[in-house]
Amino acid sequence: xxxxxxxxxxxxxxxxxxxxxxxxxxxxxxxxxxxxxxxxxxxxxxxxxxxxxxxxxxxxxxxxxxxxxxxxxxxxxxxxxxxxxxxxxxxxxxxxxxxxxxxxxxxxxxxxxxxxxxxxxxxxxxxxxxxxxxxxxxxxxxxxxxxxxxxxxxxxxxxxxxxxxxxxxxxxxxxxxxxxxxxxxxxxxxxxxxxxxxxxxxxxxxxxxxxxxxxxxxxxxxxxxxxxxxxxxxxxxxxxxxxxxxxxxxxxxxxxxxxxxxxxxxxxxxxxxxxxxxxxxxxxxxxxxxxxxxxxxxxxxxxxxxx
Length: 307
Prior knowledge:
This protein has 12 helices and 13 strands.
């Protein structure tokens, strides 16, 4: 699967993933009004609004980007209608040729971890049928429970040619409370990075592994270290834009071949029309503002990588 992602990155010349993390406050009033008019101010109405919002964002950007990353919590909060919107979003993005990274951050052990892996990356068995449930191409995974929690995902990755991005050094300010702790002379995130590299050796797909890592753009020096520790793992880089990361921070996340990283922006793109820079588009053309934000992000990253 990593080869499909790489092919999409090369085709678009944009190592960018758009985080489809919708909140009702982001969704323009006309979309909400129409959805509520049909389904009422209900979970069904909210789910329909999310789906219509996502569809227009995908239509406006799919030719510019290699992948999208829906964050499942933004859908789960609306219950079953929200999950239905999640599935519609995943399926539509794949129809448009996009790679889908399910930002689900699962982490458990044994049969529970296997069930998560089957639900999001593999297939579930219903009597004589093997059925795909959510159908993402990649999933984010929490390594806190160790190999017991990761191996079920690796098994599905090998069987189905899917991938995972394992949390190593996250972009949030308090990540250091645990991730920066010194263990046997080294920070915990380095130990996790070494495990990611080892797990990755069992899931190679060409020169890169289907086992990647999440490393925040807000910690570029740590990203530089982790890039060396995990040379064959793609790095999913959150924290660009709204969280303060910028193109200049990203250089060391990439390998010398110009590959090895994909940078996420969520509200900086999907709610771009709320920013002063893109306010002229107005909420009625929110998807055009999102497209402009993608083009600006692409130019920013390309400029940084050329230096």
